[in-house]
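F.,

This is the one I mentioned.
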């Protein structure tokens, strides 16, 4: 065979062999193990390389299929496992360098830059071959050894990817990206190894720069499609951009090039000399880069501006990262100027027809350049002025002048550039401040939200800068000058937006009061200058209005004067108040009242609005100054007299009549708004007057409240399309007036509600409900920015804590809601007349007011003879009788509206309703429960179930409120129970489709909670308790019998019966446990409990026997309720036996049910779950199960004590069981262990203890069973917490020494750096702390306690995460504290060991709490964990100081250790405060002899630290302690 195959070499080289056969032979030779050729692999690689080289050098003529086959053959070789194994073994296989050039040429052909040859190989195959070469270090030598080939490949791959990205085709594969990333990796490695960095620069700046920048732009600006490969979109594209950035950074801005850049930019032409060793090729590196950027032919005219704008900031940032140091800031500036010139602003300025879109890329780049200048501190004002002659300032001023000469206020970058220039130096824009204020503020027409945010950022910066310079009046002077200019005022936006007002408030609080008064005076002077031209001129009126809103914002946000304000400031304020009223407000009203003024004239409306704004501002400011500043004297004098009109108010200014302003209410929304504000202010003024108000004042308050609400009623009703309002007075117009009016009303409801008639309250409630019940309310409430809307304000009112305090409005909203629900879903109203409900509610209020809350129904009704008791109760009884209205099936839309209404009702805080409203709401909810019927569809039934759940939830809220007893005046408690639960059984068939959905357990839980609270109330009232509960039990029994008679199984009805019966049973059992001494109650409830047990057990058996699927969270509690009821009844029988009764005491009748349920609970207990409530329920059932000794007495059964303990151990050992879960289940686990301990025999408890101690053995860790150790540690801790007694207690403490030794061994093993080491250590320490604490008086041998010190000393506190460190630190401190408190006698001999352990904590916290050095990765503030640990150290020091007898002799050594460590570290101030406070207490034990010893033994530096500590102790602590002892008996 070898002879046959050895001729293959000659055949594939023979010219006579067809090329198709040659390919077949070559493939066979590569894969065959029987073909023996010397150096076969290298021969075949050389053959295919020679063939491809010959074809592309025109020496061979091959068919297209053959060429394609050769490429595929080469690709198969390069990716074969055989080749990889040979290379790994060290065999040398090379590939011709010409293949690299051929691959580069083929890639170039497919990039679209040259015409394709006749034979075009698939680019996928070529790229695959390239990838195979680059991934193999042995083969990639053909690229790495000849760097030009690698650069050429990188360039052509980048261009190929650019062509793919330009085509907008879907990028369905990652092959090209992967090959390009491989090439980048090889290139960057070789680039870093190059010694000739000039060569690197020329290659990067030459063939690579343009493809790199184009590719980066196309990747960053591409609109990715869903068809694109996710890896490309999310990862590879970003990785390529990062690689481009790395290549440009190291290639263009290497550290060796710094001198070249300095030579080009920092030396003048006359002095520039070529230094020795400088490359001529790099004489002008910046110029070379900019020339490549300016080549529009490569990028294309469409992409060129965007690429330049995106590349210049990147190149400038990379340059600054390399060269930006203090001595090179001027170089950075000159590079910035060159890059700025490349953005083409000069060309755009020369083009008069240029559009803003042409400027956008350049502005975006300029914004990034200026931000780099600012962040890198390139511009130093003093250095530039002194050393450089202000060259930077001059250039930035030209940039600012260009921006203001060619404004683009529709572009956010224009605002951002101006903002950065102002941050650099406000003097840059100072000469053109008026243009800046005009173009960027007053005359800027900004509507886009992005542009508006940029504008607010610029203007906020402007205000902040001028505030810091104390030149805010200068800025406002320019603002007023611009406002006063002739301009198209109709197009102007309001001067102040919400964000600007917020910034203005901060600025006005910082500037001196005199400057605020200067601004005030400037505005008044500007208005005074405009007054002569006001009449008949709407533009002038608008200017005055703008200034009025500005003055309103200034005065409302300035700092208030107080009694400490200097007298000149107060006097000037009084003069300005007088000037404001006399020079501006009065002329405004006189001009508006002139004979030439008509009601419809626009200028008169604006003049009146200005007057009202300033009038309201004057009144508010005057009132504020009167309250806060005793020196202030109001220039307004006494208020004017009251006019005869019924709605008129006190005139805020005596010179202006109120009646003259009344006519403007309907003409202008702004005027109406400020008239309402004046009315509110007048109401406050009347309310603040001392003494009893007169009838006229009450009438004025009612008229004012009515006027305020009615003024905007029409606007609010038509406010469906109202715009959002930002809260500024200047933005109130016809579109925002409705929102502004509603904001005024809702903000002052506390004032208005007491004086509004019922009709207006109903109107307010109707508006609230109309907005809350809208389908789009929640979406409409999410307004952008800080805008207010009527729906959001209605939501806020609903959630306000003040709403229940406004009882009339609260009741109006409740009644409107119930009426709307009845109208929308056609729910009939129960036939109880309103006057009867009001009478019952009033009587209950009266009885509660007299303190007789427990009075009976008859006593309450007899005291009010308006309606006889019998008739009122009869009507109510008829309403709640079994003659209920017919069931009502609702559509899904109706159910959605009902659910939304019930959500609103739950937000109304039903526990704060009056008695009458409580009855209204109770009957409303009962009517819903009585009439709702689920539909046949599952979705409809599910929503109906949610509605019923919310109804029962709301009934529970009502029943837990303070007015809960009032419902018992409607009917007997039994009738109410029957009425509320009876409707559920007829619709059980319709609800069967919802049994499996998540809403079903929630519904049953809601029913259960309602019944629990209602039945508990019946029991606590003690009025006909037995009759009412027996009536309910009879009803449930009849429901059960009727379901059995009909024959058809109804699982839903059974589940309802189970939940209801178990709830009633549990309430009675809990009541019996609380009132065991009340004989009569016990006998009554015992007989009732016996009936319930006889009914609940058959229902449970029937349901489980037929395969009923009651939810786990309900099954277990129901069975537990039956078990507790049986145990309670058996306890009663035991009491009878003990008193000499019958000796026949029966056992548990349903043991099989309990055993079966327990088995299921044990099976489910270890299943992963995040339902904490379910775990609690299961553990509580096990506790009840274990309390019945006959159920778990047999150890061999599947539900015996050992099985239960094993299940609990498995639960605690589960990997999903977290420490937080265990902490939350602590009560249930402790109770279960106590029941196991008390209910077990001696042999069983021995097995339990043996299980615990075996689980603590270290061999479990060696076997990899660390979870068993975890569960044993937790169970041991819980067992030690149990209050045990008798033989059980003795057995526990007999094994305590064994447990301590096991804990010591576990701590030593966990210290060996295991993954589970921290968890085992923490649990061991916690167990040790509990054992020592509980072992007070039980651990007789001191040696057992001292073993704890050995355990503590082996615990490492280094290399821990912060949370782990805090937990272990607290655990160690808990052990030490337990020894200190519970075993003080041990410290007589073990005090050194104690201090050794404690000093480890001190040194550890000093290390953690030290101040971080420069360069360390840490925050400046210390964590809360470290502070808490330091506080624990301080507390322990305090307790040590209280044990003077044990620790006095060691105090000096402890102090020496502390100060020695303190001299090495600089502690955080907060940590040092805690440690020093503890050390002060320890110094109380130091004697004079100890002081001499310390001063003599401490080293020089440490001694100084100790002296400082002792001086502080003497000054701050010792003197205080001695003072306290002086007055201590």
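My design for it:
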């Amino acid at each position: 065979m070898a002879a046959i195959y050895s001729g293959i070499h000659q055949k594939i080289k023979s010219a006579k062999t067809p090329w198709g056969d040659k390919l077949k032979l070559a493939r066979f030779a590569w894969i065959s193990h029987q073909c023996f050729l010397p150096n076969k692999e290298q021969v075949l690689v050389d053959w295919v390389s020679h063939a491809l080289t010959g074809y592309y050098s025109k020496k061979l003529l091959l068919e297209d299929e053959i060429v394609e086959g050769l490429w595929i053959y080469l690709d198969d070789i390069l990716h074969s496992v055989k080749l990889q194994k040979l290379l790994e073994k060290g065999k040398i296989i090379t590939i011709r360098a010409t293949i690299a050039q051929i691959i580069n040429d083929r890639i170039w052909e497919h990039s679209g830059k040259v015409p394709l040859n006749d034979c075009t190989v698939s680019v996928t195959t070529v790229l695959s071959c390239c990838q195979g070469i680059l991934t193999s270090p042995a083969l990639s030598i053909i690229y790495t050894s000849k760097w030009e080939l690698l650069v050429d490949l990188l360039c052509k791959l980048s261009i190929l990817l650019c062509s793919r990205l330009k085509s907008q085709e879907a990028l369905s594969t990652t092959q090209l990206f992967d090959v390009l990333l491989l090439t980048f990796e090889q290139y960057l490695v070789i680039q870093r190894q190059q010694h000739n960095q000039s060569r690197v620069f020329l290659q990067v700046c030459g063939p690579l720069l343009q493809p790199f920048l184009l590719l980066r732009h196309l990747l960053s600006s591409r609109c990715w499609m869903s068809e694109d490969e996710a890896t490309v979109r999310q990862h590879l594209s970003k990785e390529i951009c990062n690689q481009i950035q790395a290549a440009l950074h190291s290639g263009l801005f290497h550290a060796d090039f710094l001198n070249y850049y300095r030579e080009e930019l920092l030396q003048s032409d006359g002095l520039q000399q070529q230094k020795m060793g400088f490359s001529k090729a790099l004489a002008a590196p910046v110029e070379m880069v900019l020339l490549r950027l300016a080549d529009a032919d490569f990028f294309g005219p469409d992409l060129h501006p965007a690429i330049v704008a995106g590349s210049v900031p990147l190149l400038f940032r990379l340059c600054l990262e390399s060269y930006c140091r203090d001595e090179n800031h001027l170089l950075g500036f000159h590079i910035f100027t060159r890059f700025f010139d490349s953005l083409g602003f000069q060309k755009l300025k020369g083009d008069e027809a240029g559009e803003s879109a042409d400027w956008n890329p350049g502005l975006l780049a300029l914004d990034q350049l200026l931000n780099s200048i600012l962040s890198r501190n390139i511009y130093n004002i003093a250095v530039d002025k002194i050393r450089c002659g202000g060259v930077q300032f001059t250039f930035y001023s030209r940039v600012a002048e260009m921006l203001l000469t060619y404004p683009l206020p529709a572009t956010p970058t224009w605002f951002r550039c101006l903002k950065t220039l102002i941050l650099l130096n406000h003097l840059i824009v100072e000469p053109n401040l008026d243009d800046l204020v005009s173009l960027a503020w007053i005359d800027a027409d900004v509507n886009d939200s992005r542009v508006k945010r940029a504008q607010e950022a610029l203007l906020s910066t402007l205000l902040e800068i001028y505030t810091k310079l104390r030149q805010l009046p200068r800025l406002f002077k320019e603002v007023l000058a611009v406002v006063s200019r002739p301009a198209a005022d109709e197009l102007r936006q309001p001067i102040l937006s919400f964000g600007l007002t917020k910034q203005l408030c901060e600025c006005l609080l910082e500037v001196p009061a005199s400057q605020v008064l200067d601004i005030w005076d400037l505005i008044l002077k500007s208005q005074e200058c405009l007054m002569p031209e006001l009449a008949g001129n709407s533009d002038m009126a608008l200017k005055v209005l703008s200034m009025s809103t500005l003055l309103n914002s200034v005065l409302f946000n300035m700092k208030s004067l107080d009694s400490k304000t200097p007298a000149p400031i107060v006097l000037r304020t009084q003069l300005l108040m007088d000037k404001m009223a006399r020079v501006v407000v009065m002329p405004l009203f006189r001009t508006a009242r002139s004979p030439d003024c008509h009601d419809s004239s626009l200028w008169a409306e604006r003049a009146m609005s200005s007057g009202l704004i300033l009038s309201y501002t004057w009144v508010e400011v005057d009132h504020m100054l009167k309250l806060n500043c005793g020196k202030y004297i109001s220039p307004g004098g006494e208020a004017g007299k009251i006019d005869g009109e019924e709605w008129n108010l006190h005139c805020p200014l005596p010179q202006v009549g109120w009646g003259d302003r009344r006519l403007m209410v309907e003409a202008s929304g702004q005027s109406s708004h400020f008239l309402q504000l004046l009315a509110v202010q007048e109401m406050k003024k009347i309310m603040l007057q001392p003494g009893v108000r007169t009838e006229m004042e009450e009438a004025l308050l009612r008229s004012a409240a009515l006027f305020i609400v009615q003024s905007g009623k029409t606007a609010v009703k038509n406010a469906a399309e109202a715009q959002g309002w930002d809260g500024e007075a200047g933005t109130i117009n016809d579109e925002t007036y409705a929102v502004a009016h509603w904001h005024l009303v809702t903000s002052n409801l506390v004032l208005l509600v007491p004086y509004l008639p019922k009709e207006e309250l109903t109107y307010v409630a109707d508006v609230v409900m109309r907005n809350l019940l809208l389908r789009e309310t929640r979406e409409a409430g999410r307004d952008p920015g800080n805008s207010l809307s009527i729906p959001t304000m209605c939501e806020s009112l609903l959630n306000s804590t003040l709403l229940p305090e406004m009882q009339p409005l609260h009741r109006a909203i409740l009644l409107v809601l119930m009426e709307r629900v009845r109208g929308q879903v056609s729910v009939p109203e129960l036939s109880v007349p309103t006057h009867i409900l009001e009478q019952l509610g009033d009587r209950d209020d009266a009885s509660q007011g007299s303190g007789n809350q427990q009075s009976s129904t008859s006593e309450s009704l007899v005291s009010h003879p308006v309606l006889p008791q019998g008739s009122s109760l009869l009507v109510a009884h008829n309403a709640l009788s079994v003659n209920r209205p017919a069931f009502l099936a609702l559509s899904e839309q109706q159910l959605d509206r009902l659910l939304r209404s019930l959500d609103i009702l739950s937000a109304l805080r039903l526990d704060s309703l009056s008695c009458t409203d409580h009855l209204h709401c109770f009957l409303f909810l009962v009517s819903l429960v009585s009439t709702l019927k689920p539909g046949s569809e599952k979705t409809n039934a599910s929503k109906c179930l949610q509605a019923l759940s919310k109804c029962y939830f709301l009934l529970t809220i009502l029943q837990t409120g303070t007015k809960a007893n009032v419902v018992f005046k409607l009917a007997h408690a039994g009738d109410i129970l029957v009425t509320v639960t009876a409707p559920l059984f007829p619709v059980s068939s319709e609800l069967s489709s919802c049994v499996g959905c998540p809403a079903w357990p929630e519904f049953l839980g809601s029913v259960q909670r309602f019944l629990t609270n209602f039945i508990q109330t019946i029991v606590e009232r003690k009025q006909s308790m037995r009759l009412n509960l027996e009536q309910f039990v009879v009803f449930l029994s009849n429901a059960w019998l009727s379901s059995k008679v009909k024959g058809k199984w109804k699982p839903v009805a059974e589940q309802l019966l189970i939940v209801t019966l178990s709830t009633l049973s549990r309430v009675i059992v809990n009541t019996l446990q609380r009132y065991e001494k009340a004989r009569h109650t016990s006998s009554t409830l015992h007989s009732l409990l016996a009936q319930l047990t006889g009914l609940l057990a058959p229902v449970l058996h029937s349901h489980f026997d037929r395969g009923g699927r009651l939810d786990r969270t309900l099954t277990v509690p129901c069975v537990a309720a039956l078990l507790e009821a049986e145990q309670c009844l058996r306890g009663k029988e035991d009491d009878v036996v003990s008193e000499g009764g019958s000796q026949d005491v029966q056992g548990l009748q349903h043991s099989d049910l309990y055993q079966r349920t327990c088995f299921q609970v044990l099976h489910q207990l270890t299943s992963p779950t995040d339902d904490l409530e379910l775990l609690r329920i299961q553990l509580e059932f096990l506790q009840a199960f274990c309390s019945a000794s006959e159920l778990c007495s047999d150890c061999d059964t599947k539900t015996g004590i050992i099985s239960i303990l094993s299940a609990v151990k498995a639960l605690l050992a589960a990997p999903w069981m977290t420490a937080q879960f265990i902490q939350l289940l602590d009560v249930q686990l402790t109770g279960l262990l106590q029941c196991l301990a008390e209910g077990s025999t001696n042999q069983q408890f021995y097995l339990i203890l043996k299980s615990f101690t075996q689980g603590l053995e270290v061999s479990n860790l060696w076997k990899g069973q660390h979870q068993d150790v975890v569960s044993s540690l937790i169970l041991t801790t819980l067992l030690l917490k149990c209050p045990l007694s008798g033989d059980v207690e003795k057995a526990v403490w007999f094994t305590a020494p064994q447990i301590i030794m096991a804990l010591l061994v576990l701590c030593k093993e966990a210290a060996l750096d295991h993954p589970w080491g921290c968890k085992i250590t923490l649990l061991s320490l916690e167990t040790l702390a509990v054992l020592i604490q509980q072992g007070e008086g039980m651990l007789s041998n001191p040696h057992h306690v001292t073993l704890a010190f050995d355990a503590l000393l082996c615990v490492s506190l280094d290399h821990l995460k912060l949370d782990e460190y805090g937990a272990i630190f607290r655990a160690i401190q808990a052990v030490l504290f337990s020894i200190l408190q519970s075993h003080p006698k041990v410290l007589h001999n073990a005090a050194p060991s104690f201090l050794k352990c404690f000093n480890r904590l001190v040194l550890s916290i000093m290390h953690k709490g030290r101040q971080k050095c420069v360069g360390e990765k840490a925050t400046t503030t210390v964590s809360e964990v470290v502070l808490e640990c330091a506080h624990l150290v301080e507390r322990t020091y305090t307790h040590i100081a209280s044990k003077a007898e044990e620790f006095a002799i060691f105090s000096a050594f402890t102090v020496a250790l502390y100060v020695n460590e303190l001299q090495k570290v600089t502690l955080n101030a907060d940590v040092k405060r805690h440690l020093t406070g503890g050390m002060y207490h320890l110094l109380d034990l130091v004697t004079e002899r100890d002081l001499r010893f310390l001063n003599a033994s401490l080293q020089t530096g440490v001694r100084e630290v100790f002296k400082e500590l002792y001086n502080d102790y003497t000054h701050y602590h010792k003197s205080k302690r001695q003072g306290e002892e002086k007055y201590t008996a």
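The chain has a mean pLDDT of 82.

Talk soon.
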